[in-house]
Amino acid sequence: MLLLSFLLLPLLGAVLLAVSPGFGRLHAGRFAIGWSVVPLVLLAAMEFQHTGSSGGVMTEWSLPWMPDARIHLTFSVDGTSCLFLFLTSCVTLFSLAVSSKIHLGDRAYCALILVMESMLFGVFTARHFIPWFLCWEMTLIPAYLLIRLWGGKGAPRAALRFFIVTLGGGVSMLLGFLVLQMSVGTMDFAALSQLAAHQQLVPGLVKAFGATGLGGHTLLTVVAVAVFLGLAVKIPVVPFHAWLPDAYAEAPTPVTILLTGLLSKMGVYGLLRVFLPIFPEVLPGLAPWLTALAVATVLLGAIAALAQKDLKRILAYSSVNHLGYCVLAVAAVATSCVDRVAVESAVSGVVLQAFNHGVIAAVLFFGIGILEDRSGGLRGLNDFGGLRANMPVFSGVIGLALFASLGLPGLSGFVGEFLIFNGVFGLVPWAAAISVIGLLLTAVFLLRLIRKVFHGPLPTPLAAWPDLSCRERWLFAPAIALVIIPGLWPQVLLQFINGDTLRLLDQLRPIP
Amino acid sequence: MAEPFHPYLPFLLWWVPLLPLIAGAVIAILPNRYGRVASQIATGALFLSCLIALAALLCSLTPGKMASSIPAVTWLTFGDVALQVGLWLDPMSAAMAAMVTFVALWIFVYSIGYMEKEARFGRFFGFLSLFCGAMLFVVLSNSLLLLFMAWELVGLASYMLIGFYFEKPTAAAAAQKAFITTRVGDMAFFIGMIWLYRQSGTLLFYDNGNGLLESGVLHSLAGATTVGGLAVSSAAALLLLVGAMGKSGQVPLHTWLPDAMEGPTPVSALIHAATMVAAGVFLVARTHPIFSAAADLNGLSLPLIAAAWIGGITALYAALVALAQTDIKRILAYSTVSQLGFMMVALGTGGVAAAMFHLIAHAFFKALLFLSAGSVIHGCHEEQDIRRMGGLRHAMPKTFVTYAVGMMALSGFPFVFSGFWSKEAILHKAQIWPGGHGPFLLAGAAALLTAFYMTRQALLVFFGVPRRPGVAHPHESPSVMLVPLYVLAAGAVLLALVGTPVWPWFEEWISGESARFDSGALMKPEVMHLIGLSLAIVTLGVGASWAIYRNVSSDSQAADPLAGKLGGVWRFLEQAMGFDALYEKAIIGPLAFFAGAIDALERQVFVPLMAVGESCVKRIGRWTGVSDEKGLNDGFDRLCSGLQNRAVSASRSQSGRPQAYLRAIGLGMSVLLILYFWLIA
Hints:
heterodimer; A: mainly alpha; two-stranded antiparallel ribbon; 22 helices; globular; B: mainly alpha; elongated
């Protein structure tokens, strides 16, 4: 019950906001911020209860919803979920906290963000397709409205595109799982992965859809591709990424933080917790395609970022590039799981990279928000210069996050990238060797950003800009701590996921 | 495993790198106005660190207890695999740690004077501390991973310090260029490291017989082959070599190092001459067993041959380019590149000890030269062009003396200067190398040119008449800047004592033997032969330079005497043989073009594709909408109007209130419908 109340807590906040017009312009935001601290506290309490258990199911809640169809509302938290819940709580709180007063005065804005938080909680804990998919699709509505209503000039178009494309992906995923339901009669993740491990998915599919004339293996491949499409659109993987730059650029900064920090992580989480355990039988066949797409994502993200002139678009492509490494690791694991150590490394790397990217991207987009705030809406690469002279603290903080983003050891970004490349090199050496170019190009466009924005002579109009205010410093401080601490001491995150990594490893090996 | 030198040393040794790092972190959060406090914290921390490093050096002198592992700690665990990092103390790391802390300490002291008037005085010391901590982790690490991490942090510190005057676009560009160029090498290093880890399952150098550099693992690395029949050890070693080339400015990854002179002069001395650029050489020296794991009977292997040739080419290339430079710091920068080439030659030809000896000697005399150059620049009111100097030996006699010591050590003046013996040792190794005479000839020619361009520089700066028109007189520097010069000058001379053929203490200490005194060694024919050659080289270089530059014109605009004779070649050398222009054309231009093409692909292909998908979805949506309107809704509407009609007729017969009846019927219908669907499902 604690879990259920935890999942519904933000929703309750949203409802309270919606039904009480008494919240003045000032108090809606304060209430929302205060409310979103509560899940963080609960989560900390939950983690403390289970420290030392090294993963495993920490708490579970299940309700038979449609017992005949074997549809249960099952939610459970293990170490990996815990990490993603923590990320969700932190990034949501951060996103609310960095929102402008105008946004925060709007009850609808605050309520929508809280709704989204609840749905994300659901995605990261659901263990059955139906509740998982409901939450998955329900994140779209607040995201759409947030971009549409509070975004820039091109927002309506970008929001619609974002909505339709991701919805399309969702439909494809739904169809895939319906096929599974009709064949083997369950959509429970654990049950499906059990069936997959005992190689019973293919016979089930043949029995139900043998009339189509397609072989069981082909059918399962089609289902796997359908599910992958839904996940790929969200991450996004090339060539399903074209919605992203516009959506990220047009959304208001706090919403961009949510999009890149959390919504893209849903896809990564899905690849790891849904895609890999359910389809191990057809993964080797799909792996070359996945690897090619992942390498393309890594390289295209990095190269396209080089050509951008808008800071938000640079970071948007940088996100594509960084999440490409996660896809690369998943593709490598799909290729082969003979080298056990390499698989463990790649899988751990995916979780760390997802988590760290969420934090780093949040800091960076907030940085752009501050630049927009100071300049009255400018965010071109060439609109700034020399800011290190009059905004040293700001430059230091953003510089730190940028170096974390390009994978400087000692900061959080490096650990995930090291583990991913270590794993990928053991499984698909050529892909690792090519993707290293992505790491190099990341340094090129991020350092160019530093040079253009923070270095060089300070133009006169910029000299009057104040450095970070006290409030802004306090907002950055915990985020920066989350960039530095896991970089120096990765165990702080890894201890949560090591148990899950080993369990996933067992799921990937077919039981004879 | 060897016993620890001293019971407390394992605990203390961690503090050698940690103290400067902590100082750097403290300074980072210290408000800028506490600049003086920052410099005191940094210098104090480094002083303590230096004391421990010297103590460790003393410990490592004990024969029989030369190497010691500092217990490894688990840095991270993924799945059920733990990755450990630790420190390793042997003569090589002890010497490096002592050298880094000692030279850096004096450069810190010098900086207190040199940087006095800087607005960001405190920040400067913060970055310097960060650099020292990272560099000390590089030299003391017992794990390739820790070494790589520290290696990257060293790169960050270098980036921050080259771009210290970030307002200057040239400095900002130089910093970016340095980081990116070295990162090209770093990525090769990264892959090489991962390859070694995947192949051997460990990243520790020494681990009770299971380490990377121990015979069991080396044997298996040399046994496994990869594409083209190359041993994995050799392939990984080549990747590590590329990493080393990036950091140590070897051709063709050298272009960042001359530009790095945009940083303040103490930075050039500490990072881009004495220590950081030597990290590449150190990496190769440390992992030398991997380089030679797959060697044939002559001791030749592909990575070693590559190192020798790259080193030789770099040594000669940079010496040639240095001939035609006019900026006092750029000459020294190219000379650094050239000397790093010498070290690579030594490593390639099997002389790890010779390379390390030259590295440490070079650290002293090159730091000395840069600091003296800084003193000159300071005294000449930030003038850096040697054509506008001249006659400074009268105005700055003390700086002149220290500069002369450094210059003679670098040129390899015989017998009393460390540079003579270290270079002699390298040439000796190169000469007897079974892989051919190429590297020896290249290095010999470079040695000749070194004597030539250093003499040219000394003559133009300190001799003749002042050529700088209409500016205030040069002045001698304060003693806070001069004392470090004396100390480093003493080091540049005294180091000669431990590396002569008579008493090759250093070489034998590094290779783990106890030194012996052998006065007869000097008289051996091959040693005599080589000493004769070295003498000839130095004499020729200095003499030729003296003949050309002795009576240089007093006009600062006049062309260089050699420029006329060499013509186009001179201009080619002036532009450093066009590497920058080449990279501009061959890499930067195409990359920008490619990025533009990808961006166009995004806009012209991917976005329209997405729009097509979008319109498909929209069309489906419209179709379902229409069918919904026409089918479901209209049907429902008809149903409703039918109901209504019937209700009307019913109401007519019952003369009640039709709205109420209608509402009740509608409600009942909906409930029934919902119930119906619910039960079916």
